[in-house]
Design goal:
The protein is an alpha/beta fold. It is 42% helix and 14% strand. A nine-stranded mixed beta sheet has the order 3-2-1-4-8-10-9-11-12, with helices on both faces. A three-stranded mixed beta sheet has the order 6-5-7. Strand 2, helix 10 and strand 3 form a beta-alpha-beta unit. Helix 1 crosses helix 6 and helix 11 packs parallel to helix 13. The longest helix has 29 residues. The chain is globular and about 75 Å long. The two termini are 30 Å apart.
């Protein structure tokens, strides 16, 4: 990593701490962490639009229309501005949909406007700096257990490892139909920038305006995703072609196919809607709770199973996917078994990363990352499903012990991105196992739920194991020290 990038990371961390300090002030006004981030999003967008010669916000509703007013007048005008912009379309509509002022105290709004947002020229900051700062703010929000925002935030170390394995290439389109705050999309965008430092104007245009596509059901989260992308320099080619669409991604057959899908769909077995391959007829009961998807293999109300089917339908021939899925998708019978079998017939399901519990706040269930490639008509599967167990004897949490990139280095190395045929079994490496496609398909339920002892104690000499434990303790102590330093800086 270059010195310049290190400096930007340091500046982004300092900016995050400054932004977060104001949140503590506004909590006295009854504002939750998510509400605070939402209000910051509105104000940042308005300020950046005001700094541009022809910003997207109309002058009568701009930052300048209220920033210099006295507290009560500012409070009233800010509320009117949000109300007026909430009925717009395009990027304005995405950011300000159903927007309203949740800051009750005019003096505290004035403090936020004049003392924080107004003190910085945001368009003068690099996309990496302001984007990383906003990402840091979202991560702090996700670590607040009370807000429940962790369910929309996949740990970034895990996201970056997955993106490195899938290996996006310049010119490809990357999509996430359940994008949350756009972590996968941003990681793919950053990966492409880092691996292609000398982009032509046409390549830059494609990367920033056409290569990234996301969908998000929850309006408030779609707003954060849109702002997150915008701060990183990603926007649509027009108001009708935005990088983020707010709505149910499962409701319709994909209009266009994409090259890569990276997603962590919402957990929870049952949804209120069933997606059926049979078209609805007039007079059917619960007509409004059934969506017609003629392309789905199996009708079911199971959210994860529907996302598995949807992701396959999104991909071009030869396309690649990585999905975070709970254990039940890997071993249940019925619809799950039928979908697993169908996917193995049409795709090369080549890798499963077994994740430890505790990575996602909203759900204590065990999860996995399933990697597969859509086969061309003449192509045959590679013949093996490789499984890496990061679950045994490992514990993480989003707040007290987040997963680090170093925890995933071995898996990324074994994955052999772009050259899966070079994978090998290693004697003594008990976390990494290969299973035959033929054997899996011959089983009744086509189960992907494999169990074996991946405990290091089973094959590691005592002194070597003691050394490993000492290193883990050292890591924990360093993380604790960093947390103390951050707390002192905040104070």
């Amino acid at each position: 990593m270059s010195f310049g990038r290190d400096q930007e990371n340091f500046e982004a961390s300092a900016l995050v701490r400054r932004l977060w300090q104001y949140c503590n002030i506004l909590r006295d006004d009854g504002l939750s962490y998510p509400d605070y981030v939402e209000q910051l999003t509105y104000l940042l967008f308005l300020k950046m639009s005001d700094e541009q010669t022809n910003g997207p916000v109309p002058k009568k509703h701009s930052w300048s229309s209220f920033a210099a007013l006295e507290p009560k007048a500012m409070h009233r005008k800010y509320g009117e501005t949000l109300s007026a912009l909430s009925g717009t379309s395009g990027m304005l509509g995405l950011i300000f949909s159903n927007a309203r002022n949740k800051i009750k105290d005019p003096a505290k709004l004035r403090l936020l406007v004049s003392g924080l947002i107004g003190q910085t020229s945001w368009t003068g900051l690099s996309a990496d700096l302001k984007g990383d700062a906003y990402e840091g703010l979202l991560e702090k929000n996700a670590r607040d257990t009370k807000s429940g925002a962790g369910q929309y935030f996949t740990p970034r170390a895990l996201v970056r490892a997955i993106v490195e394995c899938v290996n996006p290439r310049l010119g490809e389109v990357v999509a996430d139909p359940a994008c949350g705050t756009a972590g996968f999309l941003l990681a793919a965008h950053q990966y492409l920038k880092e691996h292609n430092p000398h982009l032509t104007p046409a390549e830059t245009e494609h990367l920033n305006k056409k290569a990234i596509r996301g969908g998000e059901l929850v309006e408030e989260v779609a707003r954060l995703a849109g702002m997150n992308l915008l701060l990183h320099g990603i926007s649509g080619s027009s108001d009708a072609d935005l990088p983020i669409v707010c709505g149910d991604s499962l409701e319709k057959i994909p209009d266009t196919k994409v090259d890569i899908v990276l997603t962590n769909p919402p957990f929870g077995v049952k949804g209120s809607i069933t997606y059926s391959a049979k078209e609805k007829r007039s007079g059917d009961n619960n007509d409004d709770l059934t969506v017609f998807r003629s392309d789905f293999w199996v009708p079911t109300a199971n959210k994860q199973l529907n996302f598995v089917q949807h992701v396959y339908m999104m991909l071009k021939s030869g396309g690649r996917a990585a999905l975070v899925l709970p254990d039940n998708v890997l071993f249940e019978g019925g619809a799950a078994a039928l979908i697993r079998r169908k996917l193995m017939e049409l795709c090369d399901v080549h890798t499963i990363l077994r994740l430890p519990p505790g990575l996602f706040y909203a759900h204590g269930v065990k999860s996995n990352v399933v990697f597969f490639d859509v086969l061309n008509r003449r192509e045959q599967p590679k013949g093996s499903l490789w499984v890496y167990d990061l679950r045994t004897d490992v514990r993480f949490s989003l707040r007290s012990k987040p997963i680090q990139e170093s925890d995933l280095l071995e898996f990324v190395d074994l994955y052999q991105a772009g050259q899966l045929e070079k994978r090998q079994e290693h004697e003594g490496l008990i976390r990494w196992r290969r299973f035959s496609h033929e054997e899996i398909l011959s089983s009744q339920d086509c189960s992907w739920h494999f169990s074996w002892s991946a405990s290091p104690e089973a094959s590691t000499p005592p002194m070597q194991r003691l050394s490993e434990i000492s290193q883990l303790i050292e890591k924990d102590l360093m993380r604790a020290l960093e947390s103390v330093r951050n707390a002192v800086e905040d104070l």
